[in-house]
Each structure stands twice: as structure tokens, then as C-alpha cells.
Amino acid sequence: MAEMDNYDRSILKHLQDDGRMTNLQLAERIHLSAPQTLRRVRMLEERKIIRGYVAQVEAEAIGLGVTAFVNLSLDREQFRNVREVERNIMAFPDIIECHTISGDFDYILKVVAPDLKSLSQFLTDRLMQVPGVASLRSMICMEEIKPVSSLPIS
């Protein structure tokens, strides 16, 4: 882990809670001057500790009523270019997260769709057609209990 002091950790905690706060508001909360705070934020951004800023959008409000977690296995016998498969996966906007995992599958994907029929069509007609994909197993999310949250900063 990159070296960070208590000010840096405090900056991360506050920005995770409210990424839209002004530099002046942040400075007041961490008890540093605005220029020192801005310098530290920029340094955290340059070091890729802060990866970016986003708005968290309610999926159902924009017509994406189904979320699924999809386990994906690669066909290593027929296809060996893993990075090409990953590039194909990253090109699908329906896939909002992708993680390499250990165990029986190679990846776990978080996929959103308007409805079950659309999800089924995406998995069958698009994702399964990616060269190198051997199999999928999907699990439908019934209810989101804890949405995307802040990382614990010690």
C-alpha cells in the first residue's frame, strides 16, 4: 500500500462519502488549508489511489430492473488469448463489473438488463458468442441489500 498519512486517509473517507464537496469544504473538514488540501487530492489522483469520481445511479430508475451475477469459464483448449476475451467483455456496457476469480470459474461478472428476457438474450446471443467463452452460470439478484459502498479506510 502506498504511504499515506492521517490527512490522506481523511481525504479519502470524506470524498467517498461525498465526491462532490468543494475543496474548501474538504479543507475545513480535515483541518488543512485549501491549497494544501488540493495538493494532496491531486497527489492521490496522480498516484491512482483516487481512480475517479462518479454518480451512483439507481438502476431501476433508468429501466434496468434485473441484476445478475454471471460466472464465466474460458475454453483454454480452443482459445488461449485471455486478454482478447477480457477486451470483448469490457466492451459490453451491460457488464458493469468483471473480476478474475479462483475456483471452478475464471470470472464473475455483474450484469444489468431491463428484464429477464433481455438478460437471457444478452447471455445467449452476445456473451456466449465471444470466442474463448466456454460456459456461463448466472444467478439473478433478488434484492440489493448493501449497494456499492465506501472502502474501509483505517
From TrEMBL:
<dbReference type="GO" id="GO:0043565">
    <property type="term" value="F:sequence-specific DNA binding"/>
</dbReference>
<dbReference type="InterPro" id="IPR000485">
    <property type="entry name" value="AsnC-type_HTH_dom"/>
</dbReference>
<dbReference type="GO" id="GO:0043200">
    <property type="term" value="P:response to amino acid"/>
</dbReference>
<dbReference type="GO" id="GO:0005829">
    <property type="term" value="C:cytosol"/>
</dbReference>
<dbReference type="Pfam" id="PF13412">
    <property type="entry name" value="HTH_24"/>
</dbReference>
<dbReference type="Pfam" id="PF01037">
    <property type="entry name" value="AsnC_trans_reg"/>
</dbReference>
<protein>
    <submittedName>
        <fullName>AsnC family transcriptional regulator</fullName>
    </submittedName>
</protein>
<dbReference type="InterPro" id="IPR019888">
    <property type="entry name" value="Tscrpt_reg_AsnC-like"/>
</dbReference>
<feature type="domain" description="HTH asnC-type">
    <location>
        <begin position="4"/>
        <end position="65"/>
    </location>
</feature>
<keyword id="KW-0804">Transcription</keyword>
<keyword id="KW-0805">Transcription regulation</keyword>
<keyword id="KW-0238">DNA-binding</keyword>
<dbReference type="InterPro" id="IPR019887">
    <property type="entry name" value="Tscrpt_reg_AsnC/Lrp_C"/>
</dbReference>
<dbReference type="InterPro" id="IPR036390">
    <property type="entry name" value="WH_DNA-bd_sf"/>
</dbReference>
<dbReference type="InterPro" id="IPR011008">
    <property type="entry name" value="Dimeric_a/b-barrel"/>
</dbReference>
<dbReference type="InterPro" id="IPR036388">
    <property type="entry name" value="WH-like_DNA-bd_sf"/>
</dbReference>
